[in-house]
Every structure is written in structure tokens, then in C-alpha cells.
Amino acid sequence: MRSAAQQGHRMAAVVSIENLSKTYDGGVKALDSVDLEIEQGEIFALLGPNGAGKTTLISAVCGIVVPTGGTVTVAGHDIIREYKKTRGAIGLVPQEISTDMFETVMATVRFSRGLFGKPKNDAYLEELLKDLSLWDKKDAQIRELSGGMKRRVMIAKALSHEPDILFLDEPTAGVDVELRRGMWRLVRRLNDKGTTIILTTHYIEEAEEMADRVGVIQGGRIVIVDRTDAIMRQLGKRQLSLTLAEKLDAVPAALCGWDLELADEGHQLVYTFDANDEDTGIPRLLRAMDEAGIGFTDLDTSKSSLEEIFVDLVHRENGTQAQGEGA
Fold it and tell me: Engineered SS bond to 263: which of 18, 96, 268, 327, CB 3.0-4.6 Å?
């Protein structure tokens, strides 16, 4: 079932950020007068290059970084004056896997729940670990798990106290394509259960595949916020390059519905598409490849770097503002 946010219905803001700024010692301005509202029940992607301010922004909302100025409310509560209430409503999955590697999965999740003063509820934790495909590893030490499972443990820890809002900081950075797609499915399942999801990413495809809305941040400023399809329409014609798991001699007939060509002596499949189209065809192409048994080990867009795309968005946004001021 599609969420109200996905259907275009306006929901109440569960996170409200007004004029938020953060300047670190030495004068580095990480956030510059950020205004943003996150709607209840949506998946919101904060997109930007490394160093744009993504992690600082969610760290400020989660109470890890103290803002220099501005206000943030979570479910109507101020994050400074009512820290315990707001922090209890939030689950945070950081980029780095940070937990006691010699603890068992169940012990570390129980401990995280206890940190928030929640009463023992192993029935809930059992359901949570089953949802994350971790139940059969509940007695395993963290150090024994694969990288993908360790990341799932971090999500279990973040959800252990039953928060309404989940922050995911670069959830698929540095992971392979299979794990990335598995994480996408997991996030959708969590959202279907009513959890509001805010994720940071520098993958355009990740934002397109998952998010109801996208915010673009650059230089500590939010330069544009819009529905995902509207953002994608601004990016123009691009190419998606898929590095294939096995060499192909020709484009399979099962993929004849897409503008495809082989490159790198059959080791790459290149899809040319127009982001101005409402349906880029990428999700369907990936599903069709999966159904045809055509695996890939990496994917990338080759029209321009994300930094160049962001600069284009900044110029367009500034141009729009200038026209409005001159009207």
C-alpha cells in the first residue's frame, strides 16, 4: 500500500527545522540557515556530496551536535528543552558500525532498549530481529557476522526502543549492489509499518528508487526540496552504466524495451534515458535483468558528476529566486 506521502497527500510535519546553523571551532560553517520539514510517514532522502552538511544536519536533529542557532522540533517537542522526549522518538543508524563486537546480537539490542528506559520486551525484540532476518543469529557474537548483518544489527539497535522516526546516515555507502538493494527493500518494509524514514545518500539512484521527496544540500544550505519525480525531471538525459557479473555477446531480447548498448567488450551494459520523463525505466530495467538472470556488480551514472548536477540545481534555484525578486 502506498503511503499518504507517496500518494501526494500533505501530512503533518513530524520534524520541523527552522533557521538551523552550525559553525564549528575554526569558523567552518557546516549548516547555514537550514529550513526543512519532514512529513509524518514519508521516506525523505537528503542528497548531497561528501562534506555538504548531511551528517551534521541529522546529528543536530538527533541531539549529537549542538546547533549554533535556529530551532528543531520533533513531534512538536523542542530538541534542546525536551531532549529526552525527542531523542526517545528517534532511532539513528550512523555510517560507522559501532558496537561491542564480543556481545551477542540479542544482548546488544536489549542493552540499547534499556538505554532509553524501556521495560524489557523480548517478544518485541524477537519480532524485530525476525523482520531484519537476524533471529537465527540472535546468540551469535557481532564479530562473527557479515558486514551486511552487522549493518542490520545497527538498525535493530536503532529500532529497539520503538521510535517513530528512523534516521539512516549513508546506509549503503561502501556496500555491494546486492546488499544495497536488500537495504532498499528493508527500508520500504519499515516504512510500510508506519516508520518515518530520513536517509542521507550521495547516490541519485538510491533517492530515486526509495524516496517520496528529496532535499538537496550543498555547502550547508538546502538548495531545493521537491518530490522525487520533480527533482529527477531536472537532471536531463543521462546514462546508467551497469558492470555485468558475466560478459554478454549481445543485448538479450528480454531487454529490448530499453535503449541499451554493450560497452567494455560486453562487460558493461549502458542505458541511455531522459530524466525528464516521468518514468525513467530504471527500476523496471533492474527487475527485468533480475528476472532474466543477468547480474551486475556495480552501477554508475556517467553524464556528469553529482557535484556538477548540484551546481546546476543551485544555479536554477538561484535563477528562480532572482526572477521572483525582480517581478
Answer: 268
